[in-house]
Specification:
alpha/beta; single chain; 3 domains; four-stranded antiparallel beta sheet; Arc Repressor Mutant, subunit A; globular; Aspartate Aminotransferase, domain 1; 40% helix; Aspartate Aminotransferase, domain 2; 491 residues
């Protein structure tokens, strides 16, 4: 029998004050010892009572660990004889401790599908988020969570089966689609019926589904340059060619797009607040873009990501509201106006695309979670949504003004701010010859997060710049962030 002096107690380092239960720690330690051949096949383990005494834990702790290992096949029980390491484990999966590193390294050319290779090529970089100047990050500290929690509690007390079981409508919760249609018609001049709205997991899923439904390998897509990298990656995975179309003070340069790729299949635009430069697409450009789509049997994807926040008047009407030919797919999100963790967005599809969007959406994850949709519907119907946007618009305007004042005081002549009338960020042009990547790296070391415009562009830029998000930081944090950035740029 394996005794205290033969059982590898050193492998079983239990953290008595750790968050992981002791039986899970014991299970993991024995499992690892088996895989690394420190407990050989057919080796007999101490009884649960003996091992409990050896380790100074309760017998139930050992019993639970043994039972899990027995269930997974690492151990085998022999009636009247005790508990043993399984003798049927494949030899190839043992000896991991002594296996050369090259034998366990994952190959860089493992076979993937064409779509899988596209996913791998476009994997996003994850970074720690800072409060000062990250783009697209709202302030959730001022969200009315008490009202939200009350609505959540109400729905879970009712616990309706239609909200928590399978069988929910893949297009989304009907009352939410009705409330959203009414809001979009009033606030954004979107022409739609509830039947045209599909609830999705944020605008990123809306962009991805659009690419899956409409684009083939070899199709050409007009893409604002510089533009939103999330859209760039979502659209390109099916293999189309993204054609960088320049942006000027009137928004997407439609004549340039017509010259570069007159027969493109789709145009991606952010007409109400161009990302990242902040321009608004002029009315003549909007009509010309719609005319191009109609004449060339093309589609327009309108990403209306943050236009609720306009500081010089009411939000501008959508491009979709001008569309008589039903060529515009309109995508929006609640991540910026409520909170990112909600993960709810929507697509307003032309009637002849609705069925395709519903089926594609159901294949991704059947439907959006039912209770958050029901809560959001009541949040809109009870007026909380409109009041919250109004409060946050005033808050963000104060922070935008703090940024402008601080830049004028600390960086006058070194940083030229772009349009300031909408959104949660502003673009800022650097002096000629500046190295935006070096500035961003040095700023990040000082916990100031800025994005070089060149990272958002497909074609080389004539002039370098930065994107500064101002929504997540307080005025005091903004002023301090600008001072730190000024020291970096001065150097």
């Amino acid at each position: 029998m394996m005794q205290a002096d033969t059982f590898p107690l050193g492998l079983l380092s239990l953290e008595r004050e750790g968050e992981t239960p002791l039986y899970q720690q014991l299970y993991a330690g024995i499992r690892q010892a088996i895989l690394e051949r420190q407990l050989a096949p057919a080796a007999r383990l101490p009884s649960s009572r003996d091992l409990a005494e050896l380790l100074g834990v309760s017998r139930n702790t050992v019993v639970n660990a043994y039972e899990q290992l027995l269930a997974e096949g690492y151990l085998e029980a022999r009636v009247g004889a005790g508990t043993y390491v399984s003798s049927r484990l494949p030899e190839a999966f043992l000896h991991t401790r002594n296996r050369p590193a090259s034998a366990t390294r994952v190959s860089g050319n493992r076979p993937l599908s064409e779509l899988g290779r596209a996913f791998a090529r476009n994997a996003p970089r994850t970074r720690k988020q800072y409060r000062v100047f990250p783009q697209g990050v709202p302030d959730t500290n001022h969200f009315p969570f008490a009202d939200w929690a009350r609505l959540v509690s109400r729905h879970y007390r009712r616990a309706p089966n239609r909200l928590v079981n399978y069988g929910q409508a893949p297009a989304g919760y009907r009352p939410l689609r009705e409330a959203l249609a009414e809001h979009l018609q009033a606030a954004r001049a979107v022409r739609c019926e509830p039947e045209q709205i599909i609830i999705v997991g944020g605008s990123q899923q809306a962009l991805y589904l659009t690419g899956q439904i409409l684009l083939e390998r070899g199709d050409r897509v007009w893409f604002e340059d510089p533009g939103y990298p999330g859209a760039r990656n979502a659209l390109r995975v099916t293999g189309p060619t993204l054609v960088p179309v320049p942006v000027d003070e009137e928004g997407l340069d439609v004549p340039a797009g017509e010259a570069l790729a007159p027969a493109a299949r789709l145009a991606y635009v952010t007409p109400s607040h161009q990302f990242p430069l902040g321009w608004t697409m002029s009315l003549p450009r909007r009509f010309r873009l719609l005319q191009w789509a109609e004449e060339n049997d093309a589609w327009i994807l309108e990403d209306d990501y943050d236009s609720e926040y306009r500081y010089g008047g009411p939000p501008l009407a959508s491009l979709q509201g001008l569309d008589k030919g039903r060529r515009v797919i309109y995508a929006g999100t609640f991540s910026k106006v409520l909170f990112p963790g909600l993960r709810l967005g929507y697509v307003v599809a032309p009637p002849d695309l609705v069925d395709a969007f519903i089926v594609a959406r159901s294949l991704v994850n059947l439907s959006a979670p039912g209770v958050p949709q029901a809560v959001l519907a009541e949040f809109i119907e009870e007026g909380h949504f409109t009041r919250h946007i109004r409060r946050m618009r005033n808050l963000y305007k104060e922070r935008r003004d703090a940024l402008v004042t601080a830049v004028e005081a600390e960086l006058g002549g070194l940083l030229e701010l772009g349009p300031l009338d909408a959104g949660l960020h502003v673009s800022a042009w650097l002096p000629a010859g500046s190295d935006a990547e070096a500035i961003a790296g040095a700023a990040l070391a000082r916990e100031v997060m800025v994005t070089p415009l060149s990272r958002l562009a497909l074609a080389p830029l004539e002039r370098e710049g930065l994107v500064l998000g101002f929504a997540a930081a307080t005025p005091q944090e903004i002023r301090e962030g600008v001072r730190r950035l000024a020291r970096v740029i001065d150097r």
